[in-house]
Amino acid sequence: MAEAAKSGSPYRRIVLKISGEGFTRSGERGINMASVVALAEETYRAAQSGVQLAIVLGGGNILRGAQFSAGTTSIQPATAHYMGMLATVINGLAFQDALESLGVETRLVSAVPMEGVAEPHIHRRIQQHLEKGRIVILTGGTGRPFVTTDTAAAQAALEIGADILMKATKVDGVFSDDPAKNPHAILYSQISYRDVLRQNLRVMDPEAITKCAEHRLPIVVFNFRRPGNIERAVRGERVGTLITETETPVRESELSATPG
Questions:
Q1: Which amino acids does the record list as binding UMP (predicted)?
Q2: pLDDT, tens digit, for every residue of 168-212?
């Protein structure tokens, strides 16, 4: 894409997965419009780099299907997952209005048919929207239960031929252990798909990692709560953790100590 090359971004097309936590304040549930607008403003600035941007949304701020899937309630697991998919559409509606209030042209797409509020997930139509410079907001997961939105994002990235999958989450990247439980956990600047799976580093669904590994699609995991991180990631700046085929994990501290 000419605009991307002119701006210096190394990417032509990106799938950005945004966790549901981005739509509310830390530790809270539901939708906080101040948080949504802040997220939209940063996404708007990132889109100015000229890349084609598709965004997959989570819905954990409203409801996670897995919370009803343990068989402890009268809600069937499949029903619970559909409820979680609908939560992503609610986030999508809020995010679409926030982006369009900034003058951004968008299209809201849902894998769960609901033509009154969102377009159906049609591959060629999504491609056309991206080529016309619209931000495409992908909701409803894959439209089928028992599939995470991480995996939906990986599938979307492969389907539309994205150059990279970016996951904006509430942690700084991939750690050697849960940083909330282990203060000595190591933050990696770069790590392989194999090491993420082998060490069971649950920053992303294993199925999503596996799909990306099979097709050599790089992944960047970074903290959306750090101002400017989405824009930096889209512009190709070093942020968070890069997951690729490399077999030697690189610690953030080692990267900082490297000259140049």
A1: 59, 142-149
A2: 999 999 999 988 899 899 999 999 999 999 999 988 999 999 999
The residue count for the chain: 260
Residues annotated in the binding site, as ranges? 17-20, 59-60, 64, 142-149, 169, 175, 178
pLDDT in tens, 62-98: 987 666 655 566 888 899 999 999 999 999 999 999 9
Alpha-carbon gap, residue 49 to 135, rounded angstroms? 13
The model's pTM is 0.90
**Residues within the annotated binding site for UMP?**
59, 142-149
Provide the β-strand partners of residue 250. Answer: 190
Domains of the chain (ranges; CATH) run 2-257 (3.40.1160.10)
Output phi, psi for 243, to 5 deg.
-110, 115
What is the Cα–Cα distance from 239 to 229, expressed in whole angstroms?
Answer: 7
| Coil vs helix vs strand at 206 | helix
Residue with tokens 């981005």: 22
Exposed/middle/buried for residue 72 (C-beta within 10 Å: 0-12, 13-18, 19+): exposed
Residues annotated within a binding site for ATP = 17-20, 60, 64, 169, 175, 178
